[in-house]
Design a protein that fits this description.
two-stranded antiparallel sheet; three-stranded antiparallel beta sheet; Arc Repressor Mutant, subunit A
């Protein structure tokens, strides 16, 4: 996905008043593209501690996230692919006419 489009979609998700679980998971994984602490994930993703633990356990269970030895979290390659998929679905859900060229395919949404 084009990095500029990716960045704009992440910003749109951050500004949503209500996010679904996929958007929360994707944003947590996007934050962990570099190793990051649990506290930073919680604050940057506007989550409560109990909710964060459930999401982290889920992501680790399905190998989308890994916990490093220094207690920091980092997204795995499948986790990065999951973020791309969620961002793509979010993009397709936006109103209006959009075109996105990716891997030689053009998707039109009306």
């Amino acid at each position: 996905m084009n990095p500029r489009i990716r960045e704009k979609l992440i910003e749109k998700i951050k500004k949503l008043k209500r996010r679904d679980s996929f958007e929360i998971l994707a944003f947590a994984l996007e934050l962990t593209s570099i190793p990051i602490s649990k506290t930073r994930i919680m604050h940057d993703n506007y989550m409560e501690f109990g909710q964060l633990n459930k999401f982290l356990d889920f992501l680790i269970k399905f190998e989308l996230l890994e916990k490093e030895e220094d207690n920091r979290y980092k997204s795995t390659e499948p986790g990065k692919q999951f973020v791309d998929m969620v961002l793509y679905m979010f993009f397709l859900s936006l109103p209006g006419n959009h075109e996105l060229k990716q891997n030689d395919y053009i998707v039109r949404v009306a």
